[in-house]
Amino acid sequence: MISPEEWQIVALSLRVGMVSMLVTLPLAFALAWLLARVVFPGKILVDAVIHLPLVVPPVVTGWVLLLLFAPSGPVGAWLEAWFGVSVLFRWTGAAIASGVMALPLMVRAMRLSIEAVDRRLEGAARTLGAGRWRCFRTITLPLSVPGILAGAVLGFARGLGEFGATITFVSNVPGETQTLPLAIYSALQQPGGDAMVWRLSAISVLLSLAALVASELLARRAGRGLHVI
Amino acid sequence: MSFDIDVRKRIGDTDIALTFASEEGATVLFGPSGAGKTSVLNMIAGLIAPDAGHIRVGGETLFDAGVNLPPERRGAGYVFQDARLFPHLRVAANLGYGGPLDLDAIAFLGIDHLLDRWPRTLSGGEARRVAIGRALLSRPRFLLLDEPLSSLDRARREEVLRAIEHVRDTLALPILMVTHDAAEAERIGTRIIAM
Q1: Do B88 and A120 touch (CB under 8 A)?
Q2: What is the ipTM of this complex?
Q3: One-letter-per-residue 3-state SS of A19-44
Q4: Do the beta carbons of residue B43 and residue B9 sit within 8 Å?
Q5: Following CA atoms A213, A24, A147, A228 in sequence, which dihedral angle do they give, to the nearest 10 degrees?
Q6: What is the pLDDT of residues B102-111, one digit of tens each?
């Protein structure tokens, strides 16, 4: 019922979503921690820039990525010179687009969970002899893990659905950058592509639903059983 | 001299100022809620910095002009009013957070049957005794006790009071305890300071 070609699209989508989530995760956590815990000048501006992909038309985000990662662009030229690689028209480029679009959602979820960690527990850890790093590693990080996981799953789901920035940045190359939404878009353009649209859409909905349920369960876990006595 | 304290701090609209020096035993800060007693303990533990003054305990300067040791280097065994056990760690891991888990050293607390429990399953008295054990196992040079008996019923109060007396008399650690209860202050304090 589902053709090998369609399975390949699903596999590519999962790979793009997973890689973009894993690469974005540490960056999102660092930004979330910065926003939750550090007071610095220009914080509002940094916060706004992180959230830009959420509100700017995705086409614009894709175009900016294209400018940055083109062979003549600042990041693209650097990648070419140092590593001899280009991300244009490659699945790695699709992962970058997904990561940028997912970043604000991941930062939001993680920031909330870091802010929810009771600072008094960190104070208690410090009086027990833990330095800042040990306190972070043994108290702050484990207590914000449910939020980190929820943010990661949400980011993965967002990456799976990425369309506008991806098609602008790395185009719609079957087998390379054609993820689920791009394949659905292509099938819609073809006469007789209806059945494929139905199948791929159903897969998209199921994957997204599973991710959202997982994210919600993790977020609930974050609020349960971790109250301070 | 165990405590040599002279601190001033403005928090919001409240000025907190306290100067005292005490010898061995337990010093009790006694006074109504809102007088800044907990803030004084937080300053001594290094969780907040005084605006001015000095903090010396057992002859070592913890805070003074140009000196402000971080909490982890002060050697305070701080028992908070709200136990503050780490919710993601079992009792054993809470007890062992600040130093090796030596049950013999804290046998008098009667908490050895609680080791596998999660903090959320403990009663108030149990949580308080675990918090005292955790503070003692971090090998502190002195103890700070913030209302260690509040919200406990009579039987639990007696358990925790005995534990504090044991620490005062047998372990001979300098203790600074905050309370608003005159009877507690009388029983524990070798010196009582009104605030």
Answers
A1: no
A2: 0.92
A3: HHHHHHHHHHHHHHHHHHHCCCCCHH
A4: yes
A5: 160
A6: 888 888 888 9
**Cα atoms found within 13 Å of the Cα of residue A169, Cβ hemisphere only:** 34
* Nearest residue, CB atoms, A228 vs list B72, B77, B82: B82
Flag if B127 and A228 touch (Cβ within 8 Å).
Answer: no
For residues B168 and B157, give the distance between their C-alpha atoms in angstroms, rounded to a whole number. Answer: 16
The domains located in chain B, with CATH, are: 22-41+70-194 (3.40.50.300)
Identify the segments of chain B with pLDDT beneath 50: none
Q: Do A226 and B87 touch (CB under 8 A)?
A: yes
CB-neighbour burial class of residue A156 (10 A; exposed 0-12, middle 13-18, buried 19+): buried
List CB contacts (< 8 A) between A113 and chain B.
none
Question: What distance in Å separates residue A152's CA from the closest CA in chain B?
Answer: 21
The verdict on a CB contact (< 8 Å) between A227 and B87 is yes
Beta strands in A103-184 (DSSP E): none
Q: Within a 10 A sphere around the Cβ of A154, how many other Cβ atoms?
A: 24
Q: Helix A91-115 and helix A4-37: axis angle, to 10°?
A: 40
Q: Letter for the amino acid at B84?
A: R
pLDDT tens, A157-203? 999 999 999 999 999 999 999 999 999 999 999 998 899 999 999 99
Domains and CATH numbers, chain A: 4-222 (1.10.3720.10)
A200 neighbors A9 (Cβ within 8 angstroms)? yes
